Automatic annotation (TrEMBL):
Domain HTH araC/xylS-type residue range list: 486-590
Domain of life: Bacteria
Keywords: Coiled coil, DNA-binding, Membrane, Transcription, Transcription regulation, Transmembrane, Transmembrane helix
Sequence intervals crossing the membrane: 21-41, 406-424
Name assigned to this protein: AraC family transcriptional regulator
Coiled-coil intervals: 431-458
A Pfam family hit: HTH_18
Length: 600
């Protein structure tokens, strides 16, 4: 605003004489008074609009109107700092949505070439936070890294603390819980060392909560209890009781794991009164209240909280994962109570949410993928379908002798026979493919043993896996082809293909050749392109490890995929099925069956 006023004065008055007249001086004084008053009124107006925004609930019409008015007035006077504030109001209003990311981009673009304090680092930090809440974790990490470089350069401690906080949350997402705990411990130490508890009490409380939650995740329950109590006390001293209900919820979870169910219930029930507008946390709360009641043998009372989750899911589909847990518990409860009708209802809802989760698999965060993708997910779905059919049959049995019911029963029976036949036939086919795979594995094992013996006899001879005809067809000098093939064999023998994101260019560089030569040699000698060649090596290696390593067999599909060089479980499963004709989950199950039989 100050710069704008100065520009206005210099434009309006160009002196015609060396010294201004008394009249001109009077006019200048009046204008200074007017512009100062305008500046003060504008400042008051901005603060008033901001107060209106703060008083409105998120994503409400009142909040959006206040943010729009603030930004329009800021642009009208071309005040960059105020424009940034306006964009930040939009980020706050649309927080946790893609729109918020859009407005953080506007902040970065606007402040890139300005000398505005704390920017554009603050813009990158806010963008990273919104990307995190939209489950775009890799992009979030990149923005946090950019913000961190700038914060270190400007020695902005507040930004450094916030960045560390979200890096810790990302570690939790990737299930690196011990590393996350270390980050949160260091961050609290950093805050205290720099006397930031009073300077930024909200960030202090967020860091304290993250530490308490991390202790929970790592089951360091005594430490979790201490930090929770400290956090509850600090949040009650905050003017707005910042994070108080979240501390209560997390403390309730700690008490649940410590089997202090009465204390857990007290904290969780208190927290529910504050969480009416935060459906996800509220539903998680209800699930833990049910667990506490179930542990105390009060299952009937606990059912009420499961139905509350179901009711919220009907209105707010974003609580789908909490709903899935609730439907699993309801299925178990109704099965134990022999209530076929209610159990069928729970199973049908469970199948629906599972289908939605599967459809949205590609866009989910890593943590959710690991939670819901297990080696048994296919068989679990099949079991639910069979349970559903059995329950339908039970419900039809009441009027078994009526013609209509008999007809329905016949249809259901035919469907069941068809399903059983389908799965039986599929299992027969899969069994043959599995046995064939095991025979192939044993043959390769014998062949490798022979090769080892030959190398012992003539250790100086390098085996080149290609015929003379193949080498000639490549169209390159024999010495070059032989050299690359020897190095390629070492690449396979040392299992370097298990590294992720291995490119043809990178391998060519390691083998002292170029991509064109390497591509020709692989195509001609292996009969496939580079991508298929890498997949073949990784799948063969996975099969060997699963067959020989008991610990490796205990991994999830996700962990196996990452260990042998794939970026995700889906690409691994596709490649595995393409090569073997069976799913990795089935392969694992058959291996375990073999081991069980051999042990008996």
């Amino acid at each position: 605003m100050k710069d704008h006023t100065q520009n206005l004065i210099s434009f309006s008055f160009v002196p015609t004489r060396k010294y201004p007249t008394y009249f001109q001086l009077s006019i200048i004084c009046i204008l200074f008074g007017i512009t100062s008053a305008f500046s003060q009124v504008s400042s008051d107006t901005f603060e008033a609009i901001k107060s209106d925004f703060d008083a409105s609930s998120q994503n409400s019409e009142e909040a959006l109107n206040a943010a729009t008015l603030f930004l329009a007035k800021a642009k009208e006077i071309n005040d960059v700092a105020r424009i940034v504030e306006g964009y930040e109001l939009f980020v706050s209003n649309y927080s946790h949505t893609a729109k918020a990311i859009f407005y953080t981009d506007s902040i970065i673009l606007l402040t890139k070439n300005t000398k505005l304090d704390n920017y554009p680092a603050e813009g990158y930090l806010k963008k990273g936070i919104q990307l995190y809440y939209n489950s775009k974790y890799n992009d979030a990490l990149n923005n946090f890294a950019t913000a961190n470089d700038m914060a270190l350069t400007s020695k902005n401690i507040k930004q450094q603390i916030s960045i560390k906080h979200y890096i810790g949350l990302l570690k939790n997402v990737s299930e690196e819980r011990e590393e996350a705990l270390k980050i949160f411990q260091d961050n609290i130490g950093f805050i205290r060392k720099n006397n930031f508890e009073d300077k930024d009490p909200e960030q202090y409380l967020k860091s304290l909560f993250a530490l308490a939650d991390s202790y929970n995740k790592n089951r360091v329950l005594d430490s979790a209890e201490v930090v929770h109590q400290r956090g509850i006390k600090a949040s009650l001293q905050h003017p707005n009781q910042y994070l108080y209900p979240w501390f209560l919820t997390s403390y309730g979870i700690t008490s649940y794991y410590k089997e202090n169910y009465a204390t857990a219930m007290d904290s969780l029930l208190k927290a529910t009164d504050f969480l009416k507008n935060n459906e996800k946390t509220l539903c998680s709360n209800y699930l833990y209240i049910y667990k506490c009641l179930e542990k105390q043998g009060k299952n009937t009372e606990g059912l009420r909280y499961l139905y509350k989750v179901d009711s919220i899911y009907e209105q707010k589909p974003k609580v789908i994962f909490q709903a899935r847990d609730a439907y699993e518990f309801l299925n178990a409860e109704h099965k134990a109570a022999n209530d076929a009708k209610q159990q069928l209802s729970a199973i049908e809802k469970l199948l629906v949410v599972d289908e939605i989760i599967t459809e949205r698999y590609q866009n989910l965060g890593k943590k959710i993928v690991q939670k819901y993708e297990t080696p048994l997910i296919i068989s679990e779905t099949e079991e639910l379908l069979i349970q559903k059919e059995e329950l339908i049959s039970q419900l039809q049995d009441k009027n078994f002798l009526s013609e209509k019911k008999v007809f329905v029963l016949i249809i259901v029976s035919v469907l069941l026979v068809f399903i059983i036949f389908y799965f039986f036939r599929r299992n027969v086919v899969y069994k043959k493919r599995f046995n064939s795979l095991m025979e192939e594995y044993e043959q390769k094992k014998v062949l490798k043993e022979k090769e080892k013996e030959e190398k012992k006899k003539v250790p100086s001879i390098e085996k080149i896996p290609a015929s003379e005809t193949q080498k000639e067809a490549i169209g390159l000098p024999k010495e070059i082809v032989d050299g690359i093939l020897v190095k390629l064999q070492k690449f396979e023998d040392t299992h370097r293909f298990t590294k992720k994101n291995y490119t043809q260019t990178k391998l060519a560089k390691e083998l002292d050749t170029n991509s064109t030569y390497l591509s020709k040699i692989i195509n001609m000698t292996k009969g496939m392109n580079f991508a298929n060649y890498m997949n073949e090596l990784r799948i063969d290696y996975a099969i060997t490890q699963l067959k020989e390593d008991k610990v490796f067999r205990s991994y999830t599909i996700k962990a196996i995929a990452m260990d042998v060089g794939f970026n995700n479980a889906q690409s691994f499963s596709i490649a595995f099925h393409k090569k073997t004709g069976i799913n990795p989950s089935y392969f694992l199950k058959q291996l375990e069956n073999q081991k069980s039989i051999s042990n008996n």
